Sequence to fold (505 residues):
Amino acid sequence: MERHFDEELNNLKRNILKMASLVDESIDKAIRALVERKEELALEVENQDSAIDMLEIEIDMLCLDLLARRQPIAIDLRFIASVMKINSDLERIGDLAANIGHKTQILLKYPLLKPLIDIPKMGDLIRGMLKDSITALVEKNSELARNITTRDTLVDDLYVQVFREVLTHMMEDNENIKTGIELILVAKHLERMADHITNVAEDIVYMVEGKTIKHKFEE
Amino acid sequence: MSGARPIKMSYTPDQVMFAGFSDSTKLLRGENLSDDIRIQVKNFNAYYGEKHALKNINIEIPRNRIAAMIGPSGCGKSTFLRSINRMNDLIDNFHIDGEMMIDGKNVYDRDIDVTKLRRNTGMVFQKPNPFPKSIFENVAYGLRINKMHKSQKELEEKVEKSLIEAGLWEEVKDDLDKSAFELSGGQQQRLCIARALVIKPEIILMDEPTASLDPISTAKIEELIQVLKSEYTIVIVTHNMQQAARVADRTAFFMLGEIIEYDVTSKMFTKPDKKMTEDYITGRFG
Fold:
């Protein structure tokens, strides 16, 4: 039987996809602003964050509304509970992108410390993880979601690499400390994004299979 | 690599900010809901002799919305429902004051044609009450007595359309001449809904329409109610709080003849304003 509830669940799904899409756009703009040294893009990312914040509230309200009115069970309950958590992770990623936008505006006042190679690589990895997690959510594909969780270490490794490299520059010349610290923070923000996406992927596995894979709980 | 696809960006942040907020978020943002009011009740009181059954009721029910009335037994919710189409007029010593407006016209005005009012407000009761006639004749009855058809063909078309609207056609189309009593309880209730729909009312009043039905039939009626709201304004009295939560856009909580709280359903069931509403819907009393 076709349920009216399904239309409400689809509406929730459309909203969370919209959220993911906006967040992806923010990450893309934040990294391009830094690499291509475009201040207007950095400003855009900061401004876009309020749209993401509004959407977070809307999705929260939709979830609470469905929990209260529909008393969902089984897959419906797991879906709504997962969306609530995914929503909050996506909003945090949006904040981190906005922070990068802010740091970029500072960095653009100084000459480039070093050619940016690893940071765009981190960005590509993260956007790939985010896109796959959305595909996994839409297609209820837990295998793809599990694959995403394994990619977090690649981002971690790049962060360590950026950290080491920038540290050397700062040790060479203490004039580099200001920009060095900002760059390390940018890389740290990117590393945190990957952690949040890993959470999203873990929630998707829970939603599809009902299994808790975080904290190596069911191993 | 896996089936990654680029995400299409077919909207701007502005569209996300200003389009498609749910009623709850709008209320949270302090926005007004722009609703077209169909039923407006102002300072309405109803009495059975000395007994003051409805006390100063003030609510507005928007067009094409479902409004649910909940509350403990004897709280006045059925009296309220029956006051809308003046079904209480038939009770001795019943009298009212205040206004019950439908589309801006007080239904208790002297010049109101009560028969027309009741034709315009279809009613579905707790227990399915089909006539002791065939399935076809049950639906055709309203058309015949109101002379709402010009030919047998038109009669048949209208009956079919109503049965389709009530979600019953597929189950009965080969048995139209069978007695309505041969149908299951849930089917009988949908037949009664088809019978109400056939004479094209604008408002449908439902008094505990699923109280005597099993869970599957109940689910079917609830789905049907949600489909019907695109055409009709629906007021439903229900004992079942979860039913109000599932189907209604607005919910009124009645207690001892008063409306304690009336609001958007999702707000009533997530953050009611009144402590008494919260205690009732969380099962702390009642």
About this structure: DSSP finds seven helices and no strands in chain A. The first helix of chain A runs from residue 4 to 35.
